[in-house]
Amino acid sequence: MELSGRLSGLPSYPFPRLRELLDGITAENHTIDLSIGEPRQPVPDWVGPTLNAVLQTFGSYPPNEGTIELRRVIASWLGRRYGVNKIDPETQILPLNGSREGLFNASLALCPEQKEGKSPYVLIPNPFYPPYAAGAALAGAIPYFVSADRDAGYLPNYAALPKEVLARTALVYLCSPANPQGSVAPMAYLQELLQLAERYGFRILADECYADIYRYDPPPGMLEAVEKTQSDPETAAIFHSLSKRSGLPGLRSGFVASGPQAIAAMKKLKSFGGAPIPTPLLSVSTKAWVDQDHVEMNRQAYCSKYQIADEVLGGCQGYTSPEAGLFLWMNVGNGEETTLRLWRQAGLRVVPGEYLGRVVDDHNPGSEYIRVALVANDHELRAGLERLHACL
Length: 392
Ligand SMILES: Cc1ncc(COP(=O)(O)O)c(C=O)c1O
Prior knowledge:
The protein contains 15 helices and 12 strands.
């Protein structure tokens, strides 16, 4: 029987591809997994008691749009984090079952069928977080990949695209801090992109889920840029998550904030096909957006990991110290070959950069790279990076 061509036309997700590459090959050392960006810090100690106090609420269906308490604390957090105080928690925030759900569904909810009388483009940085392209393709749009390689400062130069492409663009994904490159879009970049969006009538989907994992200064956010440029709030939707900020990927909790029309459309889509956050987890999420202590501890833990990476790999060819986020993005010449060698000779599991990028004009901007997740504890991370250094 026939299946969806749009779905079967998608490449495999990077992790099954990695398993295909490495399964069946015996590693010579005890293994260290630095492939998945899954935080491994202890769960904050207030999570258990908070959950325990509301266990009864497992007995009812959760509200599609979360609780107003949660939306209010998110609006307050946006005020503290970005100095943005105009977001209405009634109409401009939608809690998500992790930001992946929202980033994928945003294309379905917000992409028009046509732009300039043709199938619209969805601009995507290359390399990228895979749900962006999957969402665009399943929405019937055309994913248009824009290189975010070293020459571009690891940020896509959307402003340099031909006018015809920009005119046909309906949505633009941006990831800052970026997975996998660890680059941060400065405020001037965000403002320029907003101006471009207003000129060409497209919407920006700003993935900011690494916003609280940084080294020195907090990365600026798209909502700040919206306020500074007094842009229409419908022009951008921003996505945040407790997976990285709070080290709680298993909670499946994030949110999107945008203009009331975009949020109403995403809410409508979610009411048909989305999974609301279970009510007890809404209570844990509420506490997580209020408490800043665990976030600062979490951030310090990553600063220590950046430091270890600098100590072990500083001076190593192809190493760049990341500004923010969870990953090292290292140019090793041939990413897939190096991934195989690291596994075979050193028991180290990383991701070939090629799996996170797409070929455009015969070139995949990830193919020379590996992505290394800074997620192990300090001792294991140092051991892993020393093996990496020795192997390279
Ligand atoms: C760039 C990026 N965006 C979004 C997500 C989704 O995170 P979650 O669904 O856990 O909020 C991830 C997860 O790894 C990511 O790397």
